[in-house]
Amino acid sequence: MFYEKVFDKKTAESKLFPQNYTDAKKNESLMINIMPVVTELIDKNKEAMTGKGMPAGFDTQGKTLLSELDALNKAQEKQKADNIAYTAERRITLSKLYNRINDINRAGKLSYENDSTMAHYFDWSWPRWNKKKVIEEPAEQPK
Q1: How far is CA 114 from CA 48, 106, 107, 118, in A?
Q2: Helices (DSSP H) in the chain: which residue ranges?
Q3: Which residues, 6+ apart, have CB-to-CB distance to 51 below 8 Å?
Q4: What confidence tens digit (pLDDT) does each residue in 12-43 have?
Q5: What are 92-133's pLDDT values in tens digits?
Q6: Which among 22, 69, 92, 118 is least surrounded, fewest beta carbons within 10 Å?
Q7: Do 138 and 92 form a contact (C-beta atoms < 8 A)?
Q8: How far apart are CA 139 and CA 120, in angstroms?
Q9: Residues whose CB is less than 8 angstroms from the CB of residue 24 and which lie 6 or more positions away in sequence, other chains included
Q10: Count of Cβ atoms closer than 10 Å to residue 5 Cβ
């Protein structure tokens, strides 16, 4: 590491460098949190680090990679939020469907209560099927 080549481990500057950098190399969540500090330290000490063998474009490359990582992280978080909204919408839609099927079954049973050949078509014996309203349908929410 170029930063360690420039600053002795006992100096105040070396203590500014994140201690969990080694762990962050294997964990993108940690890396997102410490990279701004690392890039700032590299910018601040660029000349000394270049003198110890750091490639000229190393700092720019790090900033580019950090920007890409940050953009991908934001996209992932947005996707998670979208999935939660989609799942909620899907459950409401399925509940509406179940409620309508239950309404049809109740109406069919009433209509054909004296006709056993037709009434059995409206008797759902599937154990997971809820004969009551699944959930109350929420009022339309503004988007």
Answers
A1: 94, 14, 13, 9
A2: 2-6, 12-16, 21-24, 28-44, 46-51, 58-111, 116-119
A3: 6
A4: 777 777 777 778 778 877 888 888 888 888 88
A5: 999 898 888 888 888 988 999 898 888 888 877 554 555 554
A6: 22
A7: yes
A8: 34
A9: 18, 30, 31, 33, 34, 35
A10: 13
